Amino acid sequence: MTRRSFRSRIRRRAERIERRVVLGRPKHQAGLGLEKIGSGYGGWIVPTRRMTADWICYDGGVGEDITFDLEVIERFGCTIFAFDPTPRAVAFVAANAADEVRFVFRPVGLWSEDTSLRFFAPRDPSHVSHSAVNLQHTDTFFEAEVRSIPTLMRELGHDRIDLLKLDIEGAEHRVIRSLLDAGVRPIVICLEIDQPVRPWTFWRTVRRIRRAGYDLVAVDHWNLTFIRHEGSTR
Questions:
Q1: Whole-number Å distance between alpha carbons of 21 and 98
Q2: How wide is the angle at C-alpha 174 spanned by C-alphas 173 and 176, nearest 5°?
Q3: What is the pLDDT of residues 51-100, one digit of tens each?
Q4: H or E element: which one contains 84?
Q5: What is d(CA 127, CA 57) in angstroms, rounded to the nearest whole number?
Q6: Which 3-state string (H, E, C) describes 90-151?
Q7: Contacts of 48 (CB under 8 A, 6+ apart)
Q8: What is the fold, at CATH topology level, of the domain defined by 3-228?
Q9: Whole-number Å distance between alpha carbons of 96 and 65
Q10: pLDDT tens digits for range 96-133
């Protein structure tokens, strides 16, 4: 085994331990119909027995995989409101979802405030995801507008979100904090924790979600599914 592969193996093991310590065991809830929707890469575990056609779904970070969105639309009749400023993602959506009226796309990023930010490229040029917090410490970037979720809700005329999916390359911590501080409580939060991350930041975000009235019901690698307690208004 090479030194590099040994270090990679140790890092993966440390990440598994970190995830287990911070998250604990997902809480079992009967009757949710938890099921992974979408591709193996882009799919998410959601409570299929709770979802109905009138759900308002926000998807932050679509990249080049919208299998989750399209399957949700097909199975439940929901409308998906999706956000991603990455040029390749914009082109992908135009080529693959232009005729789907229930897939509403805006080329903006999600953040804790309304401004413009630099989005830094991944180290591997074949990858699509760019990061506003520069997760991979690169120098290449593009600039784009970002919005907070409460701002987008006002612009789109929504007084609630039923499902929020975040895959936004390290920006999830600030977005979650601003969302909950604004009193927005989706029924379902699907959250990818991007690595590397400081354990303290990871733990604080998970604690913040739980204190807002949510149970962790599914863990798929670093993809977490939280469900709001019935009747919770916190």
A1: 43
A2: 65
A3: 999 999 999 999 999 999 999 999 999 999 999 999 999 999 999 999 99
A4: none
A5: 25
A6: HHHHHHHCCCCCCEEEECCEECCCCEEEEEECCCCCCCCCCECCCCCCCCCEEEEEEECHHH
A7: 32, 33, 34, 35, 37, 75, 76
A8: Rossmann fold (3.40.50)
A9: 10
A10: 999 999 999 999 999 999 999 999 999 999 999 999 99
Domain range annotation of the chain:
3-228
Rounded to 5 degrees, φ, ψ at 158 are: -105, 135
Residues 30-40 pLDDT 10s:
789 999 999 99
Report the run of H or E that residue 38 belongs to, with start and end: none
Residue 48 host element (H or E):
none
Phi first, then psi, for residue 76 (nearest 5°) are -115, -15
Is the Cα dihedral 134, 135, 138, 143 positive or negative? negative
Read off φ and ψ for residue 129, nearest 5 degrees.
Answer: -75, 125
Q: How far apart are CA 161 and CA 102, in angstroms?
A: 15
CA distance linking residue 127 with residue 222, whole number of Å = 18
